[in-house]
Amino acid sequence: MNVSSPDTIAATQPADWRDLFALTKPRVMSLVIFTGLCGLLAAPAHIHPTLGFTAILCIAMGAGGAAALNQWWEADIDAGMKRTAQRPLPQGRLDRTTARDFAGILCAASIFLMGFAISWLAAAILAVSIVYYAVVYTIWLKPRTPQNIVIGGGAGAFPPLIGWIAATGHISAMPVVLFAIIFIWTPPHFWALALFVKTEYAKVGIPMMPVVKGERSTRRQILAYAVLLLPLSALPWWLPGDEHTGPIYGISALVLSSVFLALSARVGLRERSGPDDMMKPEKQLFAYSVLYLFALFGALVVDRFVPL
Question: Which residues, at least 6 apart from 256, have a Cβ–Cβ distance to it below 8 Å?
Fold first, then answer.
């Protein structure tokens, strides 16, 4: 499947704002915005509400721009997959040049606004996150290696780090741990999805783990990452100084991660999949993994403002 020609799919009707908004992957962006906001609010520093809003806006713009670049580059692939075939570019509701330009404007505006309004360190990390997702993951890793989502998982782990830097002006242990939590969470989250849409990835030639290494290997790795996630998620409870969290976060992390591990074990210990309607454990893990990250980072903020 050729993904390098930006003009393969031409728009057949005028685009409107809803098509441009769809390019930003709003569902994914909601999680990005939330974790970025939690990183900002959990930081042991005060930031003016206007500047805080600006920082989160920049994170949203950067994430949306990177997602739009992803869809611009992968329009041919999206057209070949049932899960993505209704997106604006495969449907011809938007031409690829407009999508590329829209994405570029969003990315550039987010970086410069973050730099001038907040800090150039936060802007630099935001720029790295955009390049990581749009270039390192989308163009380089995804079509070449079954480890694409493992290495590329760093792209979605940057928001709490950026939010923390926006509030404090520096990098410390806590935001690095938050980055690591999302990094380790990403493979089991995404592979749970890949298990029940593996035929679509195989059809368009994307070497996702279930396609290349098989289901059994993927399931075992899902379980292995879930095992790693349990102690890692509790690590903020043991950090020293003002980055130390209290029991609200600590207990929440242990409970949430234990459920995550239990659901991952159901997937990881299965020998084979059945028909689509028999993929209930995989679908449950995928759905819970999204809830897990919202709840875990929400607990981090509650712990910050309701100390026990």
Answer: 233, 292, 295, 296, 299
